[in-house]
Design goal:
29% strand; alpha/beta; 5 strands; globular; Transcription Regulator spoIIAA; disordered C terminus; 5-stranded mixed β-sheet
Length: 121
Amino acid sequence: MRAEVSTTEDGRTAIVSAVGEVDLATAPRLREALSDALALGVDELLMDLREVTFIDSTGLGVLIGAGKKVYGRGGTPRIVCDNKRVLRLLAITGISRSIPVVATPDGAFPRVDGALSGSDG
């Protein structure tokens, strides 16, 4: 199964969502979407992996690289994931210790009103 990647943003936060398998063949698509999102100048980056069925070391490297770029700009990255297999990989590799992982986009970046705008897709 090929990976599909989409991006939404609300001026301050970008949400890059991946669906399917993120591997050597499809990781460049995710890397490009994350780079494009960062080019928007957002402060917060949400990498939504809830619909990812498989991720290999290349895909994990893309997540690490994006997280470093966001932190380097003084921003805040988060990974959204509720898939036990992917969560296990994030824990084993230590990624979840450097980039916080949340189960849903809501609450990833607390707002005064408690909602993440632009999280509807």
